[in-house]
Structures are given as C-alpha cells and as structure tokens.
Amino acid sequence: MESMAKNDPVVALIEDVHWADPSLLDLLETLAARVNAPVLFLAMARPDLWEHRPGWGGGLRSATTIVLSPLTQDESRSLMAHMLGADEVPTEATGPVLERAEGNPFFARELLRMLVDEGYLVRDDGDWRLHRDLPASLPDTVQGVIAARIDLLPPIEKRAIQDASVVGRVFWQGAVQRLGATDAGAAVDGLVDKDLVWERDTSVIEGERELIFNHILTRDVAYNGIPRSRRAHAHREALSWVEEVTGGRSEEFAEILAHHAELAGDTERSARYAMLAGHRNRRVYAAEEAIAWYDRALAATMKMGPEATDPLVAETAVARGEALEQLGRFDEAHAAYVTSLDRARSAGEGQIEAEALAALAHVLWLLDRFEEGQRVLDEALTRAREVGATHLLSRLLYTAGTISFGRGDFRDALKLHEEALAVAKEQGDMEGEAWARHGLCETRYFMGPFEEALAQGMEADRLLRRLGQRPMVYHNQYMIGFLLWQMGRLKEAIPVAEEALAGAREVRDRRNEAFALAGRFLIGHSEGDPVAVMDAMEQALEMSRELNTPRLEAASLGFGADVLMDLGLTEKGRDYATRALQLTEQMHSTFAKGRLYALLGWTDIRGGDVTSARERFEEARRLAEGVLTEELMSYRIELAAWDDAGRPDELVDAAERLRGAAEGESLNFLAWARYGLGRAALLRGDLESAQEHARAARELAGQSGERGAECRAHNVLAEVLERQGRNQEAAAEARRAAEWIDRMAGKLPTDVRSAFVSQPLFRDVVSARDRLNA
User: Fold this and answer.
1) Burial letters for 530-544: b for 16+ Cβ neighbours within 10 Å, e otherwise?
2) Max CA-CA distance within the chain?
3) How many other CB atoms are there within 10 angstroms of residue 443's CB atom?
4) Are 36 and 28 within 8 A, CB to CB?
5) How many other C-beta atoms lie within 10 A of the C-beta of residue 495?
6) Is the model's pLDDT at 698 over the cut of 90?
7) In 364-485, beta strands by DSSP E
8) 499-532 pLDDT, tens per residue?
9) Residue 135 above 90 pLDDT?
10) What is the phi/psi pair of residue 667, to 5°?
11) Which of 361, 253, 267, 337 is nearest to 309 (CA)?
12) Rounded CA gap, 273 and 294, in Å?
C-alpha cells in the first residue's frame, strides 16, 4: 500500500465487507492503522457487519462511518438518467420505478434494465421514450426483477448464466463451456452486454477469460433457477474443470474445490480439499479460520471408510493441533496430536507419526510437562530417523533444547541448540536454522555473553521474517527486547518490545503475548511507569492461568515480586515469590529459582530475620552461579536488601558480585553495582569513594534509562555534597532524586503510594530535598 501511494494518493475500495472473515477484518484495521502514506480505505458494508463486529474500525484515528440513506427521488432520477446516458427520462417510466425502488439504487437499476430488456423503454434518435404501456404491476423485490430479466434471456444465455452461477460469483468462460453451454463465448458476451456480468481485467487462471456477476443476488437468483436434480452433476463438472486448469495449485484453490466437492457429494475430495483450505489459512496464521476448515474436513471423514479415513485424519489432526497451539489452546492441541498419532499408527503412516510425535513433544514443553515431553521427544527422534524424516531432526533438537531450558539446565540447552543449528545448516533447512538460532538467543540470554545472544536473535529475526513465520518472529522479538533492556539499551528495547506485543496480539498468540507483556513491564519498571507495570503484570498473570502454563505464571510472579518489593509492598511481594517458588518446584525445574530465593531473602531482611536472609542469599548464589542473567538478577536483589538494612559490609559484597557479573555486559546492572558501592562507602563515611561511585552510577543509569538507580545515585551525591558543605549542589541533586519519587508516587493508587513513599530511603530523599531547598 505504501509503495503504491509513493507518488500519488490511493483509494482502496473493499466491497462486501459484511462477508469478510475475522482475519480479513483484522487485516483491514491493521492496514488502516499502520500504513504511512496517503491511502483512503473505503470499506463498503451492509448493516449486518455491526451485528458480528459492533466496534469494527471504531478505535482508529481518522476513521469515519458514513451511513448511506436511501436515495431521494431527485437523486434516483439523476442515477437513471446517468445509466441511460440521457439528460431526461420519460416521467411515465421513472415514476413507477421510483415508487417501487424506494431509494434502493440497485433495485432501481435492475428495474430500469428490465424495462429496456422487455422493450417498454426504447431509444429513438438519441432520446428515450415509452414504446408501450408499463405492466399493471412491477416485481416487488430485487430478486423478482433479476428473475424476470433472466427469464427474458435467449436460451443459450440463460443456460450460460445458470452454469456460471454454479462456478461462483467469480467464474471463467472455460468452466461455462465445460458445464454444457452452447457457444459459451457468444453467450457470455451477451450477458456482458446486458450488464448482468462484468469482465475482469486479469485472470487468476492463465489463458482463461475471468468474469464476475454484477451482484451476488444475480448469481443467487440464477443458481436457484437450476433444477435440483442437475446441481450435483454440475458441481462435479465444475470441480473436475477447476482441478484440471489449476494443476499443482490445489491449496491456492482449496476453498473453491472443497465447495464444489461438498455440493457434488464427493466426500473424499471434500475432506481433502477442506484440509488443504485449512493448511492455506494456517500458513498465513489465520488460525481460527484454519480450525473451521479442519473441522469440516474431519466431519467429512466421518462418512468414509477407515482405510481412506485414517491417513487423512492423521494429517488433518496434526495441522489442526498446530493452529490450536497458535491460539494458546494447548490442551486441545495435545488432544489433536494424540488423535493424529493414533490414526497415523493405524494407517502405517510413518512420516505423519514422526510429525505427530514431534508436535506432541513441543506442546508438552509449552505445558511445562517436561518429563513427559522428554519421553515423547526420545521416541520422536528414534521414529524420525527410522522413517527418514530428516527434516524433523533440527526441530526435535530445538525442542530438546527448550525442554532443558525450561528445566533451568541452560548448559545442556546450549549444547542441543548448537547441535540443532549444525544439523539445520548441513541440511539447508532455513526454518530449522531460524529456530535453532532463536534457541541460542534465549539460552545465551541466560548464559551470556549478551552480544552473542543478540547476534543469534537478530539472525533468527532475519530468517523468520524471510520465512514469513509471524508467531515465531514475535516470539523471538520479545527475547531481543529482553536482551536490549538487560544490556542497558532501553531506547532500542522499547520499540522491539512494543512490536512483539502488538504482533502477538495480531496473530492471536496468547502465550507470546503474555511473555511480551512481562518484557514490557520490566521496561516500564526501569522507565518509572508503575501503573503500566502493574497493569501488564496482572494481564500476564491472568493469561498464564488461562493457558495453564506454570513456567509463565512463575516467571510473571517472580518479575511481579521484584516490582512489588520496590514499591514497598513487602507482604504481597513475599506471597508472589513464594507462589513462584512452589510452581517451580512442582515443575522439577531450577528455572529462575535463584532470584526467587533472593527475593525471599529480601522479605526476610524487611522482617528483621537476618539469619534466614543470609541462608536464602547463599542458596540464591549457589543456584545462580555461572548463569549470567540469574547472577545479575539475584545480586541486584541482594544489593537492594542490604541497602534497606543499612549494612555496608554485606552491601559491598553484593555490589562487587554484581559489578563482576555486569562489567562488559550490562550498563543498567552496572549502574546498580556502582550505586551499591557508593551507598556502602557513604555508610562507612568514605565521602570521596562514595562520590566517585555515585557519579559513575548516575552516568550509567542515565545512559541506560535505569531511573531507580539514577534516583538513588542522586540521593547519595546529595548527602555527600551536603556533608562537604556544598549545599547548593546538594540541593540540585536532592531535587533530581525527589523528581523521580514524585513522578512515581503521582501515578500510583493511594494505598500503593502510601507504601512506596513510606520506605526509609524515599522518606530521606524527600526530607533532604525539602531541607536543602528551604
């Protein structure tokens, strides 16, 4: 659309939008919202549209709804004069038409055409006149007018329009010839001359003349005139003709082929083409439409024998499961894969059996049922090798890596993803390579180095976009967003995270939407937008429960606990961390477990139980060791806890650990480390060291957008400068520190605001600001 409008404005006319499926309606809304060019989308629809999509287009900027009222009598007269190419039309002809049409332009047009066709209205020396009196009554409905016009056609044209109606609103002259019309070319020319059908400029079938009925009602009336006894045979002939002229393009024409097969009573071809229509929709991620077609295919197989049914059901069910997976309906997808597996084994279809096992292992990973997934995966690898399904090997190795990843065994995950990449590259499997690189991206996100993780993620993004795999593009995007945030590149992370979230919503991928929300609230927390953070957190938690994915719920609870602790909501933070830990243990996983122990240690500090806190921090360090992201998260939480406690020795230890992990990897976590060292030095009375570290923290936090660390660094500097007697400079630092607190507090609900501002550190900041600026 943008390229078409590069030089001149474009009007895109979309007719009959009331018949559009949900995906097309979504697409039109997306284009209208995103196209950055002078394009007017003119969507024509009947009021029926508002019955199934009441708010369609309502949330778009620059969107206008124009309700078309019936034409006035003057407008109707102008329309008829335009149609006849005359300045005036005899009033004795227009009067009855106007009365009957009641402002409906299509009705008026068809009535006028009928009067011309039947010889009532004739042209004489360029002027139109009434040749004979009009009949006593005119048809009451548009359908009646169309039927009257069709009845007046010469026999060859009447047969041609009926045969064309069998093919569909869009039809081809060759199909009309095949269905028995005599001299189809001349007959079609006659229909074009009478404006019953229109010829199209191009044809989707090379070498075939393509036409379209002037209105769907014209097609329907013509079709209803065909004797029922002839319809099944006609559809059978249409089906055979379309198959012959579209050889090798069955999936492209699957909807048309399935329609004719069903009306021809050909159950086997109906099932096969409905399945292919499902494949076609699934390839463009129209999952709901794909599922509807797969259901039609499975319904058709109920009328077939088991020998023909089993292979078809096996292939349909595994594809249906993949569409269900996209929508986050994992339990239903699991059931579909089990059905596919049973039928594939019954039919002796080894390739489909291997595919069903691979899909089953993958959905078990999505459901966080790692032990079951591993057992099925081992079986899938064996079966894929036995039947020569080498195209599945890299995907299976990727799934093996994701299962290890879900368990928290990142080293094993790394090895498996590297093996998957090697296999994919050896086989020239672009999809396998893209998935393997994504696996390396998310594993390196935990293990480091982050630059390597980002390089793998960006290459995966390039390949996935080239393949058109939109759900995986957005799945990979949120990992890139996580990485950029964690590296301290917040400005780059924000648009990536936004694209991941919007994209996941567009393709209705609920799981990726929830993970993208988790990334968005991490970024929002750094930016200092607590309302957006809490809203995203609640949405992610709700989705994780709907999807029945414990790891997603545990991750959301863990992220949420960290946010809640920063807001001063200690008891709720403890509850979140405890529930996340319970879920992690139920999964027999160590995924993100270290930071959960660190969070519970922080709650112990606030509760005054230093002994328990030390034990928790020790366990957190043990679990996080060698896993870069876990080290960064756990050490930052431990630093915050000892900062709360005002214990400089422990604070220095945590800050040095964090500094060692963050150096060369993460600007924002390095900012926290330098702040911790500055705060510890201040507590010890070492003003010079405190000032050095706080200035470094302020600079790093400013670069990375880590507003919480920046506020705290300003506070340390304010206290240092005040002790040095540099009150004017101290006042400026105190103001900057307090600005962040005021901004945060101003956005929070009353009960949360009270907890936030009552934390000792923030009370001190506000007090210093007020004292130094008095």
Assistant:
1) bebbbebbebbbebb
2) 112
3) 26
4) no
5) 12
6) yes
7) none
8) 999 999 888 888 899 989 888 778 888 887 877 8
9) no
10) -70, -40
11) 267
12) 10
